[in-house]
Specification:
9 helices, alpha/beta
Length: 278
């Protein structure tokens, strides 16, 4: 398998919005999403944590619930895709999640992307009464159930959730894209089995190539592959971040999502970075 390949779609600039501080007004967060769209961002992402054991900050994002926030942002934008990076799926009731996702997909005219993850903080799972040990299996079943509700008919039987009879609406008029995040072997297998997109995190170009090539070994389906990088400020960091983006693009990344640090100065850093990309 070739070490470097062309991206399936051309490398797309994406933005991870700063949802890590309770001191940031929600409208400021939404304004940054609008600004990202004006700069040509392909997708904006929001993180998710329900009840972290420590204060929100760089480790724990998701002060404003992402699905509600993205619904509001959908009314303020017209082109940019809106996604979660990533929603902790096994902490949620999948039937409620399906209703939320289908509604948001309709409200946004098909621009929503469900970025799904299994979670990693056992203490947070315990706090909300979710089972940490079965989180992977629950995520797999939830994704299968959502696709059944969106596209199938008839009963559903699973290990954790089943039903004999029921009517689901609104049925999405177009396919709801699923993005699976994570760099573990299991995450890559989940992306290969169930996702339209995969997003790594903390990967330089060689590590991205290894993970992306493994993903392509696992499936013949055209799963788009991208990753996330960080620039929080500073001249040296700026140069490294731009070089990292360009190296990932050269390595065949379909998308590179950038988090620009704290909300203060986020917009200016985002604009400078977008200008550097041309």
């Amino acid at each position: 398998m070739s070490e470097l390949t062309e991206p399936m779609t051309g490398t797309r600039f994406q933005v991870v919005l700063p949802d890590e501080s309770p001191h940031v007004p929600p409208e400021a967060l939404v304004d940054l999403g609008v600004r990202a769209e004006s700069l040509g961002a392909h997708t904006v992402w929001l993180p998710d944590h329900l009840l972290p054991p420590e204060p929100y900050g760089p480790t724990f994002g998701g002060v404003y619930e992402p699905l509600v926030t993205l619904a509001h942002l959908s009314a303020r934008t017209s082109r940019v895709r809106l996604g979660t990076s990533v929603l902790v799926v096994p902490m949620r009731d999948p039937f409620v999640l399906a209703k939320q996702v289908a509604t948001l997909h309709a409200l946004s005219a098909g621009r929503f992307v469900l970025g799904a993850g299994v979670g990693w903080q056992a203490e947070e799972f315990a706090a909300v009464g979710a089972d940490f040990a079965t989180r992977g299996a629950r995520t797999d079943e939830a994704l299968r159930l959502l696709r059944h509700l969106f596209e199938g008919e008839g009963p559903f039987e699973g290990r954790f959730h089943s039903y004999e009879r029921g009517v689901f609406e609104p049925r999405p008029r177009t396919r709801v894209p699923v993005m699976v995040g994570g760099v573990s072997e299991r995450a890559l297998r989940r992306a290969a089995d169930r996702a339209d997109e995969w997003q790594g995190v903390g990967l330089d170009a060689p590590a991205f190539v290894r993970a992306r090539n493994r993903l392509r070994e696992l499936t013949d389906r055209p799963v788009r592959a991208g990753t996330r990088i960080v620039w929080e400020g500073g001249e040296a960091g700026f140069g490294r971040a731009v070089a990292s983006y360009r190296a990932l693009a050269a390595a065949g990344a379909d998308a590179v999502a950038v988090w620009f640090g704290d909300a203060e100065g986020f917009g200016e850093r985002m604009e400078r970075f977008a200008d550097a990309l041309g």
